[in-house]
Amino acid sequence: xxIKKIYLSVITLMLVFVTFGTVTFAWIxxxxxxxxxxxxxxxxxxxxxxxxxxxxxxxxxxxSDQLYQMFENIGLVDVTSTDGLNFQTGGLRxxxxxxxxxxxxxxxxxxxxxxxxxxxxxVNDVSDQVAxxxxxxxxxxxxxxxxxTSKHDFWYGxxxxxxxxxxxxxxxxxxxxxxxxxxxxxxENNLNDIRLDDELNQFIFDPSGDExxxxxxxxxxxxxxxxxxxxxxxxxxxxxxxxxxxxxxxxSNPYQALDNDSLVAVLQETGEMNEKEKTIYxxxxxxxxxxxxxxxxxxxxxxxxxxxxQLQFKALIPPEILD
Length: 323
Description:
This protein has 323 residues and is mainly β. The chain has one domain (10-316). It is 4% helix and 34% strand. It has helices at residues 64-68, 221-229; strands at 10-19, 22-30, 36-43, 49-52, 61-62, 78-79, 105-113, 119-122, 140-143, 146-149, 154-155, 163-164, 169-172, 178-185, 202-205, 263-266, 268-273, 279-292, 306-316. The strands form four sheets. Strands 1, 2, 3, 5, 8, 9, 16 and 19 form an eight-stranded mixed sheet that branches.
């Protein structure tokens, strides 16, 4: 991975958890290189869907004051991961292991619900319908873009004739090298969660949708680095298993999943009841968001870009249980 200092000046992240009319919002804003200026997390719908940062205290509303300290003094640099859980700085850096919430964004969330549909999916990719100054209901990763003039000739790819020449001016986007990993974890606070590790869900999303410009390509940012540094480093000999699409939903039933491509969690029965004598189900996930340094679009140009990320989760009937 190429050595460079790529920081995202602003990341706005909205997590939307949707289940039968219940919506939870989380806003995270990194407004400077090393600080998060504002962070808020709120839920509506009472006991139907609640969220927690510790698996013990569940709330419909978590204020920015409660969350601010979690993400204080974060600087996002380009890192790499093949599994969405273990991260390295890579390349020519002295430090090898990347540090969560210093080099990339990482946090755990617990979900609690009393509705019967317990399968949680990341859904509704609308990235191609949203501009940086607009918004929409759904999942998207967008950025403002940076106009950058190349200082070298390099192979932009993937075709051999796809060249960028010294002096060429183009717009480059940090959104094209973002990855989002959502990993289901066993809930240590729920004694009924006795699943084995291989029963848990794991999902890495490349929202660029462009497989040809993904992980470990010899063109793009890698080619530019070699031309700039006049130093050849080897490409990774591993692969990064990612999805470029999200689960489709039945057009005739908004709560029926047609596939499990972006299934991220299955909430487990706790043995507890709420005051209305409804069974409580809970689950836990870890969300990691990073700038993938081995992506073909991880150019130095994106250092000053601004990114908005919105994730929408929805409780659905899995395809194996057709309604």
